[in-house]
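[step 3/7] inverse_fold.run input=structure_tokens len=143
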């Protein structure tokens, strides 16, 4: 420990410590910016989802779709009486819970990837009434 302390008192040691602190600060800012950008992207995706809602396809649907994105971002989409409510957070009693990463969500919502194909290949995991999830394509059609 004394050797490290003596080294840090030298100009080379101070330069090394300064460089490491700058590198760590840069990584911290990048990580926080990625998290902020990711949340902004999720907001945009779920806003777009609500805008694409097809009330005619929801006539006989009463369900809550719980989305878990990257294991820690929770969104619920409640469909009932031909209306759609989107909310950030966990729902108390979802009909089906869909777990996926943000990339998969973005690809499915943009139409780049078929939701059923993503499910069959394991990119989306579902718990609960999985059959209700098959209605998502009709409820939220891709333009």
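[step 3/7] decode complete -> sequence:
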């Amino acid at each position: 420990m004394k050797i490290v302390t003596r080294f840090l008192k030298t100009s080379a040691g101070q330069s090394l410590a300064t460089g490491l602190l700058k590198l760590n600060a840069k990584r911290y800012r990048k990580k926080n910016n990625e998290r902020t950008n990711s949340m902004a992207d999720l907001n945009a995706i779920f806003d777009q989802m609500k805008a694409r809602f097809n009330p005619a396809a929801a006539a006989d649907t009463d369900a809550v779709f719980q989305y878990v994105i990257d294991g820690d971002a929770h969104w619920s989409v409640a469909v009932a009486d031909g209306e759609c409510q989107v909310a950030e957070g966990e729902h108390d009693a979802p009909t089906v819970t869909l777990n996926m990463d943000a990339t998969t969500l973005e690809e499915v919502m943009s139409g780049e990837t078929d939701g059923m194909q993503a499910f069959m290949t394991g990119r989306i995991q579902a718990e609960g009434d999985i059959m209700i999830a098959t209605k998502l394509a009709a409820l939220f059609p891709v333009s």
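[step 4/7] annotate
The beta strands are 63-69, 73-80, 83-88, 96-100, 125-128.
The CA atoms of residues 35 and 129 lie 31 Å apart.
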